[in-house]
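Chapter summary example.
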Amino acid sequence: MRISTTFTVSEIKKFKEDLLLWAQQFEEVVWLDGNRHNSKYSSFDALLAVDALTTIKTDSEKAFEKLREFQDRAKDYIFGYLSYDLKNDVERLSSKNHDGLGFAELFFFQPKKIIKINGNTVVFEYLRMVDDEIQSDFDLISGGILEKESISVTENIKIKLRIFKDEYFKQVGKMLSHIHRGDIYEANFCQEFYAEDTQINPYKTYQKLNKISEAPFASFLKVYDQYLLSTSPERYLRKEAGKLISQPIKGTSKRAKQPEEDDKLVNALKTDPKERAENIMIVDLVRNDLSKSALKGSVVVEELCEVYTFQQVHQMISTVVAQVPSGTNPVDVIKESFPMGSMTGAPKVSAMKIIEELEAFKRGLYSGAVGYFTPNGDFDFNVVIRSILYNASKKYVSYSVGGAITAKAIPEKEYEECLLKAKAMREVLEG
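The structure predicted for these 431 residues follows.
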């Protein structure tokens, strides 16, 4: 049972910064920040979960079955992540590429402490065993006296490429051959940038990254010595009562400093036949995925190829909704559509096989999802993109980027788009 106490905070921006700083003392942390991107499918401005009562950590074998049992048993909020390589539990696939990070395939925890922010209202929802700490925790967070942890960090971080430019072109060429043969229509090809023997301050790095991007599905995740610092613009899947909402992104354009020029870039993206074709292909894939769980005839494209503007880029986003029968298990709904279409391709299984063959790294948490389940079986998960991943024990830092390859793809332009997507992460790490 949870006990709730509500507070009003005047300087909410500072409170959010201090709240995440306060959270660093815990071994398990999930922070979700909407960065004031209020939409009709938003249920909070920010949400923090810390301090595990119970946890589940597993590889991909029977992972969704284990998660279903954990979620049923908890009958409470659970927070955590799904790695991309859970594909191996959904289909007869494998992941044998290089893994420098070593994240588990799946991790969730039942938090003792949950803190929700909406506007200037802050709600503390603590399990009864720790509810006597609500007032003292609020006083500590709002007192403004928390000290930032002193962490030795690496100066002049040197970012390495898992594959070089020529190799990228070669692998994209192979993917195009698969497309021209008719093996697939589209696939998301990704590459990793990394730094070894490197230490960063996760809290400070996340704050810098979030300030640059201010994305609607930003997240900070800490699981012991492993961290995710994400400024994701994309929702994977939300369940709200009997309604499913998926908002895949396909189509990216740079921003311009001058408003007139920026408007031209928006219009160019909105009418670009290649970008629209990529987006529509993935919308069809998402519709198919959702139809596996949905009531017959309930899958609807609510928004097609709309352009949204963020701090650094314009993005083409579609919204697909569906209705699920009452009593549908929430974990089963996720399993039917995982991994998300925007990070795989079409046909999905063939695309994932080719991705595994051509990419040079194990995706792991990158292009997976972070989010939560509610006690009544609703959930909300982002897509892990525009993110820095860090293993503090291994002193290994990584970020990955990719793009959709279709028959009309030009390798040079795809590479430029990758560099555009990587810009914020590189700037933050290299200073």
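To summarize the output: The domain at 2-430 is CATH 3.60.120.10 (Anthranilate synthase).
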